[in-house]
Amino acid sequence: MRTVLVIDDNPAVGTALELLFGLREIVTLHADSPARGLAMLADEAVDVVVQDMNFAADTTSGDEGIALFRAIRAGHPDLPIVLLTAWTHLETAVELVKSGAADYLSKPWDDNKLIATVENLLELAQATREVARLRGERRRRSKVLAEKYDLRGMVYAAAATERVIELACQVARADVPVLITGPNGAGKERIAEIVQANSSVKSGPFITVNCGALPSELIEAELYGADPGAYTGASNRAREGRFELADGGTLFLDEIGNLPPAGQAKLLRVLESGQFERLGSSRTRSVRVRVVSATNADLPAMIREGRFREDLYYRLNVIELRLPPLAERSDDILPLAEHFLEGHARFDDGARAALLAHAWPGNVRELKNAIQRARLLCADGVISASDLGLGPARPASARTHGDVEPDRAMIEEALGNARGVISQAASALGLSRQALYRRMEKMGLKIEG
Predict the structure, then answer these.
(1) Using a CB cutoff of 8 Å and minimum separation of 24, what contacts does 225-228 make?
(2) Minimal CA–CA distance to 164: which of 185, 144, 184, 142?
């Protein structure tokens, strides 16, 4: 049940508010002194507090109310508090609102305004509890995942990231190719490391090739090796290729979309047979290699354009792990930022807000660079928004998901980013409040009153 605690020394106020809130099926508890109110908070589940500011006779300073507010806030930092009084100076109320009070209403109060305020705060309290529950469940799942698998120090908090990591761990022991997709700088190589670390060949080598960093004429020699003098400028010594170096382990082919057509055909053969010849050699060699590839390219579009082999795509894409951009897993931003800070400084509130508001087109790589720069520029070990140098915040439209139907992870993240405020979360998702409630109910996220 939704419950409001009224702390006021006037019994008539308690009775009036009990009648008013009762019409909205809100349970009302009444305490006639600060001490009794604090005792009831210790024993009862309360969603919102409505407190007076003066209790002793002929007192109008508001000091008692200030002390009560601070005592409640100390024991219940997230509990919404509405200040209600006829005598307290406006300046005092404003200062308390800045300190975390939810609202300030004067006596005699306006019933409609008071009801609207309390209803909104009850909604916020319920949503906040639900978000806290979901985050608690996520932390428990993450702990179990970290105990069961080697996550290679992966830092994350977003549900979308957790799903990718969990799937990577599940498919790691299957001897099938894995394709990791996602934008540059999102952390695809770290996911590949997790696949390797939990695979049946985890004790073998982990060899990385960036297919986008090699000239097309050298890719074959890089992958398969070359005999002495196999091509112009080749060494007089035989050269082992990356497949040979990765024998008994994992070969990570980054930016696989940049592989030229001739390289694609030869790679397909190796994936199917495990056999190849060095450049300039007729001797067939065999290897046992787990291939994990990654790309930021749209491979299906490249197939339609004739720039990527369809048979190779399906050979590489037995399992696809899609790592979303950092902007779509905003719960990862602050944990990653703290990780990159390494305890050498701290963020002020403005810096935290700027980190969450930025679009991060460069993803985790951009975030790491921004933190390293801010560590050098900050004064007295405190990083402000100006130290980050992130420029203007992304527009609201950039933070929405457009025409994409929000899934459970999107809704959880939107609720977390909005600190449980349904209207803000709905706006971020491009939905009405009613539409968001319907989806929460359908997914089992309905907030029980």
Answers:
(1) 225/278, 225/279, 226/278, 226/279, 226/280, 226/281, 227/278, 227/279, 227/280, 227/281, 228/280
(2) 142
CATH number, domain containing residue 43: 3.40.50.2300
**What is the overall mean pLDDT for the chain?**
86
Residue 290 contacts residue 249 (beta carbons within 8 Å)? yes
33-71 burial, b if ≥16 CB within 10 A, otherwise e? Answer: bbeebbebbeeeebbbbbbbbbbeeeeeebebbbebbee
- The per-residue pLDDT for range 375-405, each reduced to its tens digit, is 999 988 999 999 998 876 554 434 444 445 6
Give the CATH number, domain containing residue 330: 1.10.8.60
Bridge partner list, 305: none
Note whether 206 and 57 are same-domain residues: no
Range in 219-223, 247-251, 326-330 the model is least confident about: 219-223
pLDDT per residue as tens digits for the range 292-308: 999 999 999 999 999 99
In a domain, 403, yes or no: no
- List the domain range (segments joined by +) for residue 362: 326-396
19-49 residue pLDDT tens: 999 988 899 999 999 999 999 999 998 999 9
Structural domains in the chain (count): 3
**In this structure, are strands 225-226 and 206-210 parallel, antiparallel, or unpaired?**
unpaired
